[in-house]
């Protein structure tokens, strides 16, 4: 039981490429899971002790008797799979679905939202943009607000790389340092070419502006072609480069871009460094509403999923 919120829960299933499909409706010991997670033989040991060893999402949900699914697979920019199928299966099984994956929001938001509503289940995704910062739930508390546009910095990897280039490292050296720090993936293509920022921009447009937009409709440019001298000189002149996300309504559609831009060093965006993020919303009631996230840790995304779970438990009989 979570003492602060009087929520009783148990972990009845774990699934990953490394561990396979493990289910036990009586509950899996979280302490043992944590202890064994660094053990390469964990999958076989845990599976051997679990009464159920399904081999697909629907059988796994049934074997685990799941009430809530936490979906945290890697982003698939092209079609959002397999996360879309995982969430659809969870809702149809009768479970609430919580995800940290941006793909389903961009590729199947309206379908999954409608399915969840029809089945009386929650479909929540606070961790998809700016970790666990309550962006989506914030706007749920302002139901009559009309969002006209936004701009900001939503990708921390490029921010770290640009900061290192300002210090004199080449692009390749800065990328390697970001990878060594654990900020950048081994394959950082999604970050440095602007895909991650574009997907986050599309997710915000789709949900908060209620305008479906395809990734290919967002004009996208990454930071790969920026040179160390250009980045360093821009900082020296007081106009550092940042990978800026921008969206603005034009009639019945939204125009969106992701591109490196020079911003005034003393502006809120110019002060964003390291793994920090920033977003500025333009609404009909609040001309400017800004949120800054200062150098979050790895726990921040997990917190967003936990917060979604607490919101779900408050309105559900789990």
Summarize the structure.
It contains 12 helices and 11 strands. It has 318 residues and is of the alpha/beta class.
Distance between the termini: 12 Å
Give the helix level as a range of percent: 25-40%
How would you classify the quaternary structure? single chain
Poorly predicted runs: none
The average pLDDT is 91
Which structural class is indicated by helix and strand composition?
Answer: alpha/beta
Beta-strand content bin: 15-25%
Order of strands, widest sheet: 7-9-8-6-10-11
Q: Radius of gyration, rounded?
A: 21 Å
Indicate the overall shape.
Answer: globular
Number of helices: 12
Major sheet description: 6 strands, mixed
List the helices and strands and how they pair.
Blueprint: E1 11-16, E2 20-28, H1 30-36, H2 42-49, H3 57-64, E3 68-71, H4 83-93, E4 96-99, H5 103-119, E5 123-124, H6 135-140, E6 147-153, H7 156-166, H8 171-180, H9 189-192, H10 195-208, E7 219-220, H11 228-236, E8 241-250, E9 253-262, E10 277-283, E11 289-293, H12 299-315
Parallel strand pairs: 3-4, 4-5, 7-9
Antiparallel strand pairs: 1-2, 6-8, 6-10, 8-9, 10-11
């Amino acid at each position: 039981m979570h003492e602060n919120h009087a929520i009783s829960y148990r972990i009845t299933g774990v699934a990953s490429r490394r561990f396979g499909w493990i289910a036990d409706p009586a509950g899996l010991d979280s302490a043992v899971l944590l202890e064994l997670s660094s053990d390469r033989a964990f999958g076989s040991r845990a599976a051997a002790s679990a009464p159920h060893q399904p081999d697909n999402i629907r059988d796994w949900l049934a074997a685990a008797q799941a009430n809530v699914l936490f979906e945290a697979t890697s982003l698939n920019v092209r079609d959002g799979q397999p996360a879309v199928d995982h969430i659809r299966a969870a809702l149809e099984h009768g479970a609430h679905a919580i995800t940290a994956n941006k793909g389903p929001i961009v590729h199947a938001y309206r379908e999954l939202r409608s399915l969840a509503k029809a089945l009386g289940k929650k479909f929540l995704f606070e961790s998809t943009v700016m970790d666990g910062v309550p962006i989506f739930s914030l706007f749920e508390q302002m139901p009559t607000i009309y969002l006209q546009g936004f701009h900001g910095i939503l990708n921390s990897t490029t921010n770290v790389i640009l900061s290192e280039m300002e210090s004199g490292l080449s692009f390749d050296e800065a990328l390697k340092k970001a990878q060594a720090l654990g900020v950048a993936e081994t394959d950082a293509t999604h970050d440095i070419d602007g895909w991650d920022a574009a997907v986050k921009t599309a997710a915000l447009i789709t949900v908060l502006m209620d305008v479906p937009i395809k990734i290919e409709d967002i004009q996208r440019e990454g930071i790969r072609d920026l040179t160390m001298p250009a980045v360093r000189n821009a900082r020296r002149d007081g106009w550092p480069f940042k990978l800026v996300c921008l969206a603005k309504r034009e009639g019945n559609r939204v125009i969106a871009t992701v591109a490196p831009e020079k911003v005034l060093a003393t502006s809120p965006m110019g002060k964003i460094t390291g793994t920090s993020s920033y977003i500025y919303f333009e609404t009909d009631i609040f001309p400017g509403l800004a949120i800054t996230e200062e150098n979050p840790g790895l726990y921040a995304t997990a917190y967003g999923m936990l917060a979604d779970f607490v919101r779900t438990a408050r309105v559900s009989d789990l």
